[in-house]
Design the sequence.
């Protein structure tokens, strides 16, 4: 009988969670910039008037994050994926998201 | 001694949820860094692992409560528009900040960045908590996964720090006011 502690769980579920977090973060940054730069889109993102654009941007980004997570999880669970590439991609997406949320960056678009 | 309802909610949002999240972040980073490193000498005990699960769960709740209370309770008061002809903008923080060249940056840079970057914290810490719930001590066997989770938690600390810094400064320059007063202590009780 094999020792349960010696078996290594596959990294697919973790990789899916990590990459989806990167995707969700990037979605937040992109939607925030788009909402400010494209008035029609910005108006469409007002889901709750007292909170304004922020309500739609964050709600949509969260929905995109969870959808990406569900898709990636369904695809990768129980599998091993190339974690180094996934990790770098996710972290780059997160860093780009941080930059996109910084207001002066909008002036570059 | 009294405090307005809106000021109390601002404290709950900033010092309660946001402040506690910031404090907890450093603990999570140290724990992930030391105990779940592949080179860590001692394997985490089941009790420690259980504690860290609860710790991350509480952090996740704090992060979500912080952004939700900020966006849907405090922010509408902050960005309220004054009726036409209003000259005293003290009850309209955004308008008050924008009325002076000396303070407009606290809104155009501070609030605009804070209101968005803060949301990276709950996304990151939710991911970190779920990964830890799934892997627990097995995270030591996935060093690259643990490294990227650690990176996300560090960025969430920065995001929450930016939000906390600007939140405190904005509240100092143009506090959210009104909504009735809560009397904490009267002269007779003192």
Sequence:
């Amino acid at each position: 009988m094999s020792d349960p502690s010696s078996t290594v769980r596959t990294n697919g579920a973790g990789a899916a969670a990590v990459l989806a977090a990167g995707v969700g973060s990037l979605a937040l940054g992109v939607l925030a910039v788009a909402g400010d730069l494209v008035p029609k889109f910005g108006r469409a993102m007002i889901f709750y008037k007292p909170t304004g654009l922020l309500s739609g941007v964050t709600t949509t980004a969260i929905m995109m994050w969870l959808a990406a997570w569900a898709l990636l999880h369904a695809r990768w669970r129980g599998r091993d994926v190339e974690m180094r590439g996934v990790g770098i991609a996710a972290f780059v997406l997160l860093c780009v998201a941080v930059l996109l949320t910084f207001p002066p960056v909008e002036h570059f678009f | 001694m009294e405090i307005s309802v809106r000021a109390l909610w601002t404290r709950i949002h900033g010092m309660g949820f946001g402040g506690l999240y910031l404090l907890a972040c450093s603990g999570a980073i140290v724990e992930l860094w030391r105990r779940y490193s592949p080179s860590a000498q001692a394997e985490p005990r089941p009790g420690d692992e259980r504690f860290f699960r609860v710790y991350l769960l509480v952090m996740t709740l704090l992060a979500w409560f912080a952004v939700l209370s900020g966006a849907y309770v405090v922010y509408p008061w902050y960005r309220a528009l004054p009726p036409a002809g209003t000259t005293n903008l003290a009850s309209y923080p955004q308008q008050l900040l924008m009325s002076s060249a000396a303070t407009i940056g606290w809104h155009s840079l501070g609030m605009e960045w804070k209101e968005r970057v803060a949301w990276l914290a709950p996304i990151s810490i939710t991911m970190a908590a779920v990964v830890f719930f799934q892997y627990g001590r097995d995270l030591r066997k996935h060093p690259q996964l643990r490294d990227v989770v650690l990176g996300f938690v560090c960025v969430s600390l920065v995001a929450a720090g930016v939000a906390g810094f600007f939140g405190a400064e904005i509240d100092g320059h143009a506090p959210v006011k009104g909504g009735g007063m809560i009397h904490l202590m009267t002269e007779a009780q003192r």
Remarks:
- Confidence is low (pLDDT under 50) at residues 1-5 of chain A.
- Helices of chain A lie at 12-37, 39-44, 53-76, 83-101.
